[in-house]
From TrEMBL:
SMART domains tied to this protein: AAA (SM00382)
Lineage, top ranks: Bacteria, Bacillati, Bacillota, Bacilli, Bacillales
The family this protein is said to belong to: Belongs to the ABC transporter superfamily.
Organism: Thalassobacillus hwangdonensis
Name of the featured protein: ABC transporter ATP-binding protein
This protein's UniProt keywords: ATP-binding, Nucleotide-binding, Transport
C-alpha cells in the first residue's frame, strides 16, 4: 500500500545525500491467496526492489505491506523474524544463494533449525520428504551444490524455501538463467507445488511468454511505478497502457500469419534519480501529448479489475485517445 523505496545518492567530499534513486515510487497492489501475481517490466523498473522491500531485505522508505491484516513493515525486527518464514524468496542465481561448502542435507536443515520448527529427527524426516517433493532423491542429500546442474540447483533452492511452509513465495527471475527446456520443467514444478501447498506467488520476470503461462494477474512496472494491472488474459488481449502495448508487441509470435506491428521504443529507461516530470513514460511514449509533461497520471480502475496509469484513459483527455486512434 503506497510502497516506496528510495536509495540516497551520496556526493561531494562530505558524502552528503545529493539526491535519491526512486527505485519503487508509490505502488499499491493486492495479492489474493493462492494466486500468482506477476510483476513485469524492463530491468531497472523496480520489480526486484519491490520484492526485496516486501521481504524487508530493504527497509521501506514509506508505505505498508499488510499480511493477514498486519502491517509487517511496522513490526520490530525480532517479531518480524518469526513471521518471515511465511514469506520466502527464490532468486535467479542458485549458484550464489546456496552456500557451496554445505551439503544439500544441511542446506535444507538450516532453515528448520534457525526457525526452531522441529527437533533434529523430525527435521531430517522433513528434509527427506521435501527433496523428493521437488523431484530429487534422498541419496542426493549427501552432495554439494556444485555437483548439480543449474535446474537441479534451482530445485534445491525451491526445497529450501518451501521447507518452512511459507504462505507467500516471491520468485525473482527464478527461471531466467535456465535453458528453455529446463525452464519449463521448473515452471511445471512450481505450478504443482503451488496447488499442493496452497502457495501464493509473486512472480517477478522480464519474460512475457513465461508470465503469460503462469500468472492469474499481471502488473506492469516502469521507473518504479505501476503502469497497468489486470487479469492475464485481459492484459494480453486488451492492453491499455502504451508501455504494455510496446512490451507485448515485442514478443516473438509463433503464429506466422499473425500480423503484429512491432512498436519500437525510443531510447532507454530514464535515470531513476532524475525521472521526467509528469508521466514517467512520456519520453518514450509514442502517444505522448502536452499534458503528459504537466501531471503524473493517476492509477485508475477503468474496468473491473483493470487498472491503468495513463492520461489517455482520464475522462478529461479521452478526446486525445480518439484522435490518436484515427488513421493518418
Ligand atoms: Fe503516454 Fe501520456 Fe499515457 Fe504517459 S500519460 S503513457 S506519456 S499518453
Ligand atoms: Mg531484477
Amino acid at each position: 500500500n503506497h510502497l516506496k523505496k528510495y536509495f540516497p545518492i551520496k556526493g561531494g567530499v562530505f558524502k552528503r545525500t545529493v539526491g535519491h534513486v526512486k527505485a519503487v515510487d508509490d505502488i499499491s497492489f493486492k495479492v489474493k491467496e493462492t494466486e500468482t501475481l506477476s510483476l513485469v517490466g524492463e530491468s531497472g523498473c523496480g520489480k526486484s526492489t519491490t520484492g526485496r522491500t516486501i521481504m524487508r531485505l530493504y527497509e521501506a522508505t514509506d508505505g505498508e505491506v499488510i499480511l493477514n491484516g498486519e502491517n509487517i513493515m511496522e513490526l520490530p525486527k525480532n517479531k518480524f523474524r518469526s513471521l518471515r518464514r511465511n514469506i520466502q524468496m527464490i532468486f535467479q542465481d542458485p549458484f550464489s544463494s546456496l552456500n557451496p561448502r554445505m551439503k544439500v542435507r544441511d542446506l535444507l536443515l538450516e532453515p528448520i533449525m534457525t526457525h526452531k520448527l522441529a527437533g533434529r529427527k523430525e527435521a531430517l524426516r522433513m528434509v527427506e520428504e521435501m527433496i523428493e517433493t521437488v523431484g530429487l532423491s534422498k541419496e542426493q542429500l549427501n552432495r554439494y551444490p556444485h555437483e548439480f546442474s543449474g535446474g537441479q540447483r534451482q530445485r534445491i533452492s525451491i526445497a529450501r524455501a518451501l521447507i518452512l511452509k511459507p504462505k507467500v513465495v516471491i520468485l525473482d527471475e527464478s527461471v531466467s538463467a535456465l535453458d528453455v527446456s529446463i525452464q519449463s520443467q521448473i515452471l511445471n514444478l512450481l505450478i504443482k507445488l503451488q496447488k499442493e501447498f496452497d502457495l501464493t506467488y509473486i512472480f517477478i520476470s522480464h519474460d512475457l511468454n513465461v508470465v503469460k503461462h503462469l500468472s492469474d494477474r499481471v502488473g506492469v512496472m516502469y521507473l518504479g511505478q505501476m503502469m497497468e494491472l489486470a487479469e492475464t488474459d485481459v492484459l494480453y488481449e486488451n492492453p491499455m497502457h502504451p508501455y504494455t502495448q510496446a512490451l507485448l508487441s515485442a514478443i516473438p509470435s509463433l503464429d506466422v500469419d499473425e500480423k503484429k506491428e512491432r512498436i519500437i521504443l525510443q531510447g532507454d529507461v530514464p535515470d531513476p534519480s532524475d525521472p521526467p516530470s509528469g508521466c514517467p513514460f512520456r519520453l518514450r511514449c509514442p502517444m505522448a501529448f502536452d499534458h503528459c509533461a504537466k501531471e503524473k497520471p493517476s492509477f485508475l480502475e477503468k474496468e473491473e479489475g483493470h487498472w491503468v496509469a495513463c492520461h489517455l484513459f482520464d475522462e478529461r483527455f479521452e478526446h486525445q485517445r480518439e484522435k490518436q486512434q484515427q488513421p493518418e
